[in-house]
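User: Here's a structure from my thesis project, written as structure tokens. My advisor, Dr. K., wants to see whether a designed sequence matches the one we expressed. Can you design one independently, without my sequence as a hint?
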């Protein structure tokens, strides 16, 4: 995550340096200096993040690298905050003409001087801290990303939790018997040319177990004259991979590995392997493949001798399977989670032992089903959690305690260590730009089904997606989402008629891991009645329950970038006015918004980028919302809001304004100031009356970046304005 934070800080500084009017004198020089320092540190972060991951997953040690990474991440956040505060203060400096303008210019000069000194002092302090971090980082011997690794396995986490999966007994396997029989038939019959069977699915589904059952099947052993099993992993050296394949084939035949292979280069290794396979019907399993173009490193060595040879690839990445199709026939089998009946059978076997004593006591049945639901049909999770429960007394209170603490236990309990490792590996393998996107799922409650269009707009508002015209930022963000899906980290719950993802979610246990990381990194927190003072360094907050005025008054919102309401929970039927300060169900967001409007120091120092009040019990949007100058995303969807204040015209950076299913029927003329607005949705719909459109005043044709506009009253004047909106899609 440090790599993601540092890259984001660099990307924030870049445009600022280009815009001459936004930086003054010495400030520009200091910003350039910090950017250079960050770019220098960035070259070591890939290895630092990987070593921090090993410290976390292996446990023990002093965790010195994790501390170093955290400190660097915090400084990157601090840089982002300083730039946001600087931008915010510049935006508030007065403009105008005449006598008032002269007085304002005098005042502005004084403010500029104070601002310049303040920012310069802050940046000097950051530079000093970064220099210290860099010195300590050098003592850890981090390699630059430009330096090759001698082993070729720099990012591999040492322990291989798949070894046990290879030796799972038949009575421990549930739900793959029919799949196994189908694939055995596919591999033993059919086409004579070499072909690939790709087993794809998220971590913990049993891909290695299934491949092991195929590899050890007696019928297939007699069918194939030579076999090899190779665990690939995240990073590998191509020559070492080829040597391992040669070694495995010779081992299967009971022959020693030729000594000369140790000194062979790539071309010689390929020829040696092809020569060994030229008259054989062979099967090779490449387990745990992460690199998308892996097949390009292996296919030349695996001779297609037209003897019905088969290659099995297990992977979390659908794109790995797709890449194989470029040169070979490929059968893709997407492994699914266990059917509820099969999941229950496996759970009872692990938690209560084999029959006849393996039945669930009636008093534990409901709680057991709740625990099983948390496992989401993942065999690895069911086996791990069931094994942990088998060590506990069969007492409701003890099992309830475990259920409540299951998320936190993932990272600490030895029974769950492999489960935690397998699920965490998917996060650690992500490129930096996708890590923040995945962590965003932690701002939504467990099992929440998320609208993909909303998620994409939130990512863009946050700056996670680089601005682009061709392809558009939205298309880039959709590619990000599709990659998370292809990596088996995000599940698509619903697609539209064209096949595009419409609703998505993450697995419950993956959500637990994401939550741990969002809190550890200060990325965000979902509050369910906790004390807000605990969130002083939290950058994103989702509210689920109201909090009293005292807790609200001591909260520090200076670092907050995002404020959301949990719109996945059942809607509250209690309506609360933003003018009220009494704590009622769901009323916290309203009270917070009220404070932002009443307390100038909050509204003018809080660099909020996202204010998402969807489904909140709000009937009024205060004028003070116009003081949130950094706001990029504002939603009051599914609320009772009737009027949008004129101050909305101050939000010059606003990109999304979502007023769907509100009572807004007319937008203020100031809306035309929002030149960066890309999405404007304003209407109400019900089954009897249909759509109720809203009125836009003359001049909205100046919103030339608008890509989506719905639904407005269209008279002849409105049609003229619409003709000016060339970006509408």
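Assistant: Designed independently from the structure alone:
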């Amino acid at each position: 995550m440090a790599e993601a934070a540092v890259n984001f800080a660099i990307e924030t500084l870049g445009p600022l340096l280009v815009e001459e009017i936004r930086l003054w004198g010495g400030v520009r020089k200091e910003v350039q200096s910090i950017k250079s320092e960050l770019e220098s540190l960035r070259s070591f972060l890939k290895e630092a993040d990987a070593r921090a991951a090993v410290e976390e997953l292996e446990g023990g040690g002093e965790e010195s690298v994790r501390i170093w990474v955290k400190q660097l991440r915090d400084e990157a956040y601090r840089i982002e905050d300083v730039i946001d505060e600087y931008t915010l203060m510049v935006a508030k400096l007065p403009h105008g003409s005449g006598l008032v303008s002269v007085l304002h210019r005098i005042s502005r000069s004084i403010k500029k001087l104070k601002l310049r000194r303040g920012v310069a002092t802050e940046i000097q302090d950051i530079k000093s801290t970064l220099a210290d971090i860099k010195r300590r980082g050098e003592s850890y011997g981090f390699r630059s990303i430009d330096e090759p690794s001698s082993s070729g396995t720099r990012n591999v986490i040492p322990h291989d939790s798949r070894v046990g999966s290879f030796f799972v007994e038949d009575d421990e396997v549930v739900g793959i018997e029919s799949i196994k029989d189908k694939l055995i038939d596919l591999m033993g019959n059919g086409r004579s040319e070499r072909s690939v069977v790709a087993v794809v699915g998220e971590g913990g589904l049993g891909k290695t177990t299934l491949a092991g059952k195929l590899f050890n099947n007696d019928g297939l052993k007699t069918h194939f004259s030579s076999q090899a099993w190779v665990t690939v992993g995240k990073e590998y050296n191509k020559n070492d991979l080829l040597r391992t394949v040669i070694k495995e084939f010779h081992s299967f035949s009971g022959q020693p590995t030729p000594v000369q292979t140790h000194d062979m280069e790539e071309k010689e290794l390929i020829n040696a392997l092809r020569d060994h396979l030229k008259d054989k019907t062979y099967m090779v399993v490449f387990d745990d493949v992460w690199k998308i173009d892996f097949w390009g490193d292996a296919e030349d060595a695996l001779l297609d001798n037209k003897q019905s040879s088969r290659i099995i690839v297990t992977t979390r990445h659908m794109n790995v399977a797709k890449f194989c199709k470029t040169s070979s026939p490929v059968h893709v089998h997407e492994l699914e989670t266990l059917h509820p009946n099969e999941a229950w059978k496996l759970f009872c076997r692990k938690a209560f032992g084999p029959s006849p004593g393996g039945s669930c006591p009636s008093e534990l049945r409901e709680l057991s089903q709740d625990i099983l639901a948390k496992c989401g049909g993942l065999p690895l999770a069911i086996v791990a959690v069931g094994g942990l429960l088998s060590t506990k007394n069969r007492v409701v209170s003890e099992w309830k305690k475990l259920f409540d603490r299951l998320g936190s236990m993932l990272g600490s309990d030895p029974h769950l260590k492999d489960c935690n490792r397998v699920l965490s590996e998917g996060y650690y393998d992500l490129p930096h730009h996708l890590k923040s996107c995945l962590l965003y799922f932690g701002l939504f409650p467990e099992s929440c089904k998320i609208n993909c269009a909303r998620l994409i707009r939130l990512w863009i508002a946050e700056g996670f997606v680089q601005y682009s015209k061709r392809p558009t930022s939205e298309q880039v963000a959709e590619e990000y989402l599709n990659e998370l899906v292809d990596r088996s980290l995000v599940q698509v719950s619903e697609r539209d008629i064209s096949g595009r993802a419409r609703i998505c979610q993450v697995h419950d246990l993956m959500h637990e891991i994401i939550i741990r990381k969002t809190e550890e990194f200060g990325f965000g927190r979902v509050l369910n009645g906790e004390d807000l003072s605990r969130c002083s360094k939290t950058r994103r907050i989702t509210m689920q329950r109201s909090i009293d005025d005292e807790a609200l008054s001591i909260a520090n919102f200076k670092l907050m970038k995002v404020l959301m309401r949990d719109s996945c929970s059942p809607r509250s039927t209690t309506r609360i006015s933003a003018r009220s300060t009494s704590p009622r169900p769901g009323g916290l967001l309203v009270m917070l918004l009220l404070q932002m409007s009443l307390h100038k120091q909050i509204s003018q120092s809080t660099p909020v980028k996202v204010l998402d009040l969807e489904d909140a019990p709000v009937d009024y949007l205060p004028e003070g919302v116009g003081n949130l100058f950094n706001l990029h995303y504002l939603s009051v969807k599914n609320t009772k809001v009737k009027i949008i204040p004129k101050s909305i015209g101050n939000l010059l950076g606003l990109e999304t304004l979502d007023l769907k299913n509100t009572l807004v029927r007319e937008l203020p003329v100031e809306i035309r100031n929002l030149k960066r607005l890309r999405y404007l949705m304003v209407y109400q719909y019900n089954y009897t009356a249909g759509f109720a459109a809203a009125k836009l005043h003359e001049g909205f044709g100046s919103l030339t970046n608008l890509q989506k506009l719905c639904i407005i009253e269209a008279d002849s004047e409105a049609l003229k304005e619409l003709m000016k909106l060339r970006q509408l899609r």
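When you compare it with your expressed construct, this may help: Residues 340-421 form one domain.
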